[in-house]
Design goal:
This protein is α+β, with helices and mostly antiparallel strands. It has 2 domains: 122 residues, Rossmann fold (3-Layer(aba) Sandwich), CATH 3.40.50; 136 residues, Probable inorganic polyphosphate/atp-NAD kinase, domain 2 (Tumour Suppressor Smad4, Sandwich), CATH 2.60.200.30. It is built from 6 helices and 16 strands. The strands form 3 sheets. Strands 6-5-16-13-8-9 form a 6-stranded antiparallel beta sheet, covered by helices on one side. A 6-stranded antiparallel beta sheet has the order 12-11-10-7-14-15, with no helix packed on it. The termini are far apart.
Length: 285
């Protein structure tokens, strides 16, 4: 792999305890004559303003921080190395901040590979006018606002009517997102390198209750038939409040998220099972 010469280090913007770790990582990289930009507070827009010319970004936090960093870095094709300070850390590569020094040597020696993950592009149209567009690495979700109401969503695949869902929500996910909200809603687990789209209804009522895995290159269109308040979110962030008749079109984005991996290429299954397998906790004496 290409030697790292310029690296951005981004602390978790909402976790002050990540700042000392970011400073320590930045110092260790500077000690190896790497040009560093250090950011203690940031958002996606500010990352885009500072990633030009970087060879990599070290992002500190949990999966939420990895999602934000990967989306922000996608335009410049800058890979992200995640250092976990969250709870699960599906997307992070360094599971324990104290392991940083052990990964530094193989990182500087170029003993890593770049994992590319598909993202989704969602476009919302109202009366055939584009009102917003967004990208997501995990999922796009159309859901209810009112806790006691369902949404009614007419769903088309590749231009053909498929079904109309009456449900709490509809999750349209990537392979990356198959281990997030889609998994919690009963969807299958997809290997991260796949470029398939996954459709999973949440608590469907008298409508199709099985997840659907679509072929690569598929396009999904969802028409909001609900008269109650409906929301569109991407990677857990509200994008727009949808009105009756609004249509959201979802397909693979031309942007790709990139992650630096130091583990073997078959790491995904062991990493996943370490989180899903039950653990026997023995009481302390």
């Amino acid at each position: 792999m290409t030697a790292l010469r310029r690296v951005g280090v981004f602390a978790h913007p909402l976790r002050p305890q990540s700042a000392p770790l970011a400073e320590r990582i930045a110092a260790s990289l500077r000690a190896h004559q790497i040009d560093i930009t250090l950011h203690i507070e940031w958002d996606e827009a500010s990352v885009r303003d500072h990633i030009g010319g970087l060879d990599a970004v070290v992002a500190i936090g949990g999966d939420g921080a990895m999602l934000r960093a990967a989306r922000a870095c996608a335009d410049e094709a800058v890979p992200v190395l995640g250092v976990n300070m969250g709870r699960l850390g599906f997307l992070t590569e360094v599971s324990d901040p104290d392991q940083w020094e052990t990964v530094l040597e193989p990182l500087l020696a170029g003993q890593y590979w770049i994992e590319r993950r598909m993202m989704l592009r969602a476009q919302v149209r109202r009366d055939d006018v584009l009102i917003c567009s967004t990208d997501a690495l995990n999922d796009v979700v159309v859901s209810r606002y009112a806790p006691t109401r369902m949404v009614q969503l007419e769903t088309h695949i590749d231009g053909g009517w498929t079904t109309t869902y009456n449900a709490d929500a509809l999750v349209i996910a990537t392979a990356t997102g198959s281990t997030a909200y889609a998994l919690a809603s009963g969807g299958p687990i997809l290997p991260p390198e796949l470029r398939n789209i996954l459709i999973v209804p949440v608590a469907p009522h008298l409508s199709l209750d099985r997840p659907i895995v679509l072929q690569e290159g598929a396009m999904v269109a969802v028409v909001n038939l609900s008269e109650n308040e409906t929301a569109l979110s991407a990677d857990g962030t509200l994008v727009v409040e949808m009105q009756t008749g609004d249509r959201v079109i979802i397909q693979a984005s031309d942007r790709v998220a990139r992650f630096i991996r130091l583990r073997d290429r078959n790491y995904f299954y062991r990493s996943l099972l370490n989180r899903l397998e039950p653990r026997i906790i023995t009481p302390k004496d």
